[in-house]
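**Paired protein data**
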Amino acid sequence: MVASTKEEKGAKIYEIYRNGNTVYFLDRYDSNEDAAIHLENFSNKFAERFLAILTPTSLKVFGPANEGVRESLAGLGPDHFDQVNGFER
């Protein structure tokens, strides 16, 4: 999945962390369009195998996810957070 996502132009961050039996994914994209491309690629290439071995327990979405991205993620019951302050370098 990392190699595939690395080829996505708008993928800024794609990191995987583990703590015992818990796995965390940290993704960041340049735009909602880039996030939608990633979600489509994931769905087409990896979702079936991924969900066969891992069970998502939570999903946190930080930033301005548009309606398309929200709809794509709705089945996972995400919590959405709007940015109220900060910066990126």
